Amino acid sequence: MEQIWAPWRKAYIRPSQKKSKKCLFCRLLSENKDKRNYILKRTRFSFAILNLYPYMNGHAMIVPKRHVDSVHALSDQEKLDWLDLYEEIRLAIHKAMKCHGFNVGINVGKVGGAGVPHHLHLHIVPRWMGDSNFMPVIGQTKVISESLKSVYETLKKKIK
To answer: Residues 139-153: pLDDT tens digits?
Structure first.
């Protein structure tokens, strides 16, 4: 069996600090360490962040600042802010990464696949013609060709 080494992922598997009981998004938002936490932009009611476990290069999430679990719980102002930020980040990804399309979606609840089930977030996954290959099917391995740091720096240049 072939092995692909990724020792930098050890920090996510066996973190040196105790796991916080605080919501991941709420914790990252409160830290004010946007570059370290890959927060691309903050608006009045929302923020955009790169996914630490991306499905594809440039996989970002748009998150309301308020801890809610559904779109219904957002005010009209929050919804508009959230969707405006989504479109800004989607356009930045498109310009910076020259992708051919996107998968965009919301996983609601743990059973629905939400990794952070109680804090609403919208996934933006850029896609390229031919980006699917045998690795996930045969090797059960996803190849991500660019580091989070590199994607962050590239996208920050395209965001107002």
So the answer is: 566 667 788 899 999
Active-site position among 59, 67, 72, 121: 121
Alpha-carbon distance of 33 to 52, in angstroms, equals: 15
Q: Is residue 8 situated within a structural domain?
A: no
Residue 121 annotated among the catalytic residues of the structure: yes
Q: How many domains does the structure of the chain reveal?
A: 1
Q: Give dist(CA 84, CA 91) in Å, integer.
A: 11
CB 33 within 8 A of CB 75: no
Whole-model pTM: value is: 0.81
Is 68 part of a structural domain of the chain?
Answer: yes
CATH number of residue 141's parent domain: 3.30.428.10
Instruction: Tell me the chain's radius of gyration from C-alpha atoms.
Output: 16
> Which range of residues forms the domain containing residue 128?
23-154
- The DSSP bridge partners found for residue 122 are 62
